[in-house]
Amino acid sequence: AWQTASVHLIDAFDSLSSSLDAAKGRLAGASTDVAGANVSRFTEDISLELRAPLAGIVELADYILSGACGDVPSKAQRRVASMRNSAVLVHDVISDLIDLDGLKGGEKALLLDPCSLDTVCARAMGRAAPLIHLAVSLAREGAEQEQLPAIQG
Fold first, then answer.
1. Which Gene Ontology MF annotations are present (predicted)?
2. 3, 35, 87, 112: which has the fewest Cβ within 10 Å?
């Protein structure tokens, strides 16, 4: 059952890739004279097109990782978790782009309130942690395959 779910997950990533390619083509064909409002609308439309498939990928990955599809080998679990983390990170970047576009268009205001450096650093580390974990996992897998010393940490 997990293999079927992983095929659906791969199909979702392929669909997302196709959407990105289509968006890239539309962007490449856009005139450099496009008004700011049209660029803003384009960014919003593309962002909305990408957020739905990303949410689906996250949900499907959560479903697989919850064990609902049966036993999933540990290596497959790591890969599905990596896909999930990547989808969450891309979703967050898209949300940030929408926020930046809102700032640029004057629809949102930047709040310049004092903030805690500890809080800012903790958020940054929280966002980077999945990527760091993935890099260490991949390095460990490579070490196992090539019989190299495993990374400590």
1. phosphorelay sensor kinase activity
2. 112
